[in-house]
């Protein structure tokens, strides 16, 4: 049963907030406590934490990566930026950023001025002159040089401070996004209806136990809580879900990928996550600057880092299969049983790089793909336009899908689709060269080439396996405890139509 | 073309030693440099390195896990054990172990004696006596108690030292295993023949580049060297290999599993690996006692740790799909290009728990399954009986399969099958209760139940995806640069029979 929701209509259904596929928001919902060094400490060069093969990129040190932030734009639109920061409940200090920027801007001018003076002195020295005059110029040149070195040093440090603060500014927000907390999120669409059962409904843990599908207890001994083994038909179900999802998304023109699951922490940061904050979701590797990925969004974003793409290549559409690892630090409470919240899971992720003018279109395309897939599996779900406080720093707009989970008697999040506009691309350094050069512009840098622009990036969950397993088990349970397999998955399970007890 | 190799016949083919699926041996081939603290330091209680939720199990502290080593057997067979240590080029110190054991044995007797005396004193005090006599007994009892506490403390420390040294003793060796280094390994079987090409042969990297199958360069930026993205048809090939392998092995009665890829370091150690040694193959997680698995053998072994299984359950046969992570520290040289040696890969692993008298039979079964699968893919390969210096501490006997890789112009290891007898089960604490009780034995502990015995464990690679991809690309390349897909995999690739350039 589809119910169209007009703008302004809020349907409040009791909903279990399980923010995990929406990776940034699950972090943002946690008290924001990133380790910010006091400015004085930030000025000291920090020692590298990792072996010589990698840069000390995760320190607030001179070598920390720089985001291509448009400071002028921020300054020209400071009210809008300030309002956005408030709406998102972010604690970034905009005033400080603007002060640092002005300071930086002026210092940069000063540096240019002194450089100019030094060049002038150097030029003067080319001509003929008296010895004492030459000596005086040499002195002057030397003073200017020393002064310049000091100023340039200050400029670098100031840039570091500016970057540190400015990188915290969240992305702007789509005008249709509801302002407020999770209760303000708006339902865009409602699909299907809750199945009716003529027998007592079991949750996925109970169903899994009877069918020998999981082992959580031994996994707790071997690895820790929130780990699990999948067994028997659950393995086939995972493989079927992954295979089917990849196949469905590939049909729609996405390029399949598998990715590294260990990445440098700087890449994690550039995608908008905080590997080193308190309550971080990110596992770090000992004696290394590497981290485990919490989503394939990260290595896929990194696929085109520091590149200028030809416009004809866009849009680039990828579908990536990977394992994902999350600490789930700070995630407490009832929603932690069984497969709801786990440290390791398989996920198929969609990712698009496109031109700015196309990102809203592709956001709609991504959510449509998700809708089609979940519908074809017969799920009952709703699509939410997430409210401003739930977006996560990189997302301009975010649609979440929550599916009905009869065993939980609530809706639970099964996917998330974000339009990150140029937030990630400005950090990852991903640009494209527009085809048409502007006509005879005096500001052109290289002959007739248009200057490169930042791409927009989008990401969306095609299939988060544990959440899907919960949905399938709980919705398709039969009275005898067996599970009906939805039609689309049967070819991927050797034609089988039921998961039943092993005889 | 099958060529059976009689015992004693050595066929020497130039062979690329790629020790990676044979996980323990690749570690053992490196200079053995585990961090052994001097004994005095070992006596001090070390602080926990990890948060309160996990024990400081990787420290040489009182709480370090204990292996159920049969010291009496070692003592009674010390020449054989010493010869075995020499044959395996191990630096375990047998003399030290035997000395520590004697001391431990005697100290244990002393403790029992003092306990006896203390009990005697306690008994005496039950009767009537003069006050002075009672006082004297109380004094005596107190002294004995303090002495006992000190002795028990010494006993614990001695046990720790004994365990530390004894755990290094490698497994015994099958009598048919050739003695010596890698050149002594014997070929058991040779299957198929090298394909002949009427055109210049390309290696997998070149083939992959033309067909847009891999990206190593970007992965080096995002993650580091020896990481990679699989793209396009390589993703389908990986999925096909995993799906087909799981299906083939399940047909043979193995229970499918997916496993945690983060495990406690103690479980890694109990399987016979050294997470904390120099040049360790194991990635550790920061601020945690967890490690990334290098093979599913580890979490599968852990599945039945600290258990007594009913004999009727045996054999337990599992086929596990997981991602594997290896540091490849210390692995240098030519065999590192492309997919040969990577930090992360997908693998399907077989694992058997069985009764001791059956392990040799199941070792043959495992290698037969591998041979059947590789034959059906049309590969040219040889099966080796690995020599004593190449076994790795846990393996009683190890068969490696090396497949012909035309692009490398050498054989390369694609799988390994080990019989670990009771080496792992004595560490993981996995026993079984034989069904038949011995007849009216005076030593029966509980009624008519036979005492539990340690199971034997075996593990074998069903499919190490990157090595298989190399084999398939290089062996099945066509003149036009396309790749023929072997018959068995076609149903798993949507019926396709060729990987060719994208138009």
Keywords:
disordered N terminus, 3-stranded mixed sheet, 14 helices, homodimer, 503 residues, alpha+beta, 10-stranded mixed sheet
Number of strands of chain A: 19
- Terminal residue distance of chain A: 38 Å
Oligomer: homodimer
Q: What does the average pLDDT of chain A come to?
A: 86
The geometry of chain A reads as elongated
Largest sheet of chain A: 10 strands, mixed
Indicate the radius of gyration of chain A in whole angstroms.
27 Å
Number of helices of chain A: 14
Largest interface: A-B, 55 and 55 residues
Q: Could you list the spans of chain A in which at least 5 consecutive residues all have pLDDT below 50? A: 1-62
Summarize the amount of helix of chain A as a percent range. 25-40%
Structural class label of chain A: alpha+beta
Report the β-strand fraction of chain A as a percent range. 15-25%
Structure description:
Two copies of one chain form a homodimer. With 503 residues, chain A is of the alpha+beta class. Helices cover 34% and strands 18% of the residues of chain A. The first copy, chain A, is built from 14 helices and 19 strands. In chain A, strands 1, 2, 3, 6, 10, 11, 12, 13, 14 and 17 form a ten-stranded mixed β-sheet that branches. A three-stranded mixed β-sheet of chain A has the order 9-15-16. In chain A, α9 (233-251) crosses α14. The longest helix of chain A has 36 residues, at 131-166. Chain A starts with a strand and ends with a strand. Chains A and B meet through α8, β5, α9, β6 and β7 of A and α8, β5, α9, β6 and β7 of B.
């Amino acid at each position: 049963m589809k119910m169209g929701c007009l703008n302004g209509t809020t349907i409040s259904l009791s909903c279990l907030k399980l923010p995990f596929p929406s990776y940034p928001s699950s972090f943002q919902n946690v008290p924001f406590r990133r380790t910010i060094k006091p400015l004085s400490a930030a000025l000291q060069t920090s020692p590298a934490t990792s072996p010589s093969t990698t840069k000390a990129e995760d320190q607030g040190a001179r070598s920390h990566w720089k985001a291509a932030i448009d400071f002028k734009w921020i300054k020209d639109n400071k009210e809008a930026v300030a309002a956005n920061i408030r709406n998102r409940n972010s604690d970034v200090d905009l005033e400080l950023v603007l002060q640092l920027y002005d300071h930086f801007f002026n210092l940069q001018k000063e540096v240019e001025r002194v450089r100019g003076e030094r060049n002038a002195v150097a030029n003067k020295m080319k001509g003929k002159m008296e010895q004492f005059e030459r000596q005086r110029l040499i002195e002057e040149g030397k003073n200017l040089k020393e002064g310049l070195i000091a100023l340039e040093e200050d400029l670098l440090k100031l840039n570091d401070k500016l970057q540190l603060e400015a990188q915290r500014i969240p992305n702007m927000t789509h005008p249709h996004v509801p302002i407020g907390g999770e209760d303000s999120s708006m339902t865009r669409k409602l699909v299907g209806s809750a199945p009716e059962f003529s027998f007592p409904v079991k949750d996925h843990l109970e169903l899994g136990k009877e069918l020998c599908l999981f082992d959580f207890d031994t996994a707790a001994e071997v690895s820790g809580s929130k780990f699990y083994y999948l067994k028997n038909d659950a393995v086939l179900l995972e493989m079927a879900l992954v295979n089917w999802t990849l196949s469905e998304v590939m049909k729609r023109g996405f390029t399949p990928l598998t990715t590294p699951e260990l990445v440098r922490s700087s890449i994690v940061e550039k995608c908008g996550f905080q590997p080193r904050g308190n309550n971080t979701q990110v596992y770090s590797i000992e004696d290394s600057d590497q981290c485990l990925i919490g989503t394939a969004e990260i290595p896929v974003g990194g696929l085109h880092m520091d590149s200028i793409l030809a416009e004809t290549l866009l849009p680039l559409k990828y579908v990536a299969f990977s394992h994902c690892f999350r600490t789930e630090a700070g995630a407490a409470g009832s929603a932690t049983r069984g497969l709801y919240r786990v440290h390791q899971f398989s996920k198929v992720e969609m990712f698009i790089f496109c031109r700015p003018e196309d990102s809203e279109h592709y956001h709609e395309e991504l959510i449509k793909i998700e809708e089609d897939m979940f519908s074809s599996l017969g799920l009952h779900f709703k699509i939410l336009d997430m409210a401003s406080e739930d977006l996560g720093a990189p997302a301009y707009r975010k649609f979440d899908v929550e599916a009905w989970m009869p065993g939980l008697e609530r809706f639970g999040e099964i996917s998330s689709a974000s339009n990150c506009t140029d937030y990630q691309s400005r950090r990852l350094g991903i640009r494209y060269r527009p085809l048409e050069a502007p006509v005879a512009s005096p500001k052109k840098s290289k002959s007739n080439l248009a200057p490169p622009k930042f791409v927009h990036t989008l990401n969306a969950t095609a299939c988060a396996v544990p959440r899907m397993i919960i949905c399938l088990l709980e919705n398709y349970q039969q009275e005898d405890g067996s599970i009906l397999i939805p039609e689309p998955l049967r070819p991927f399970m050797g034609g089988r139509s039921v998961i039943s007890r092993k005889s």
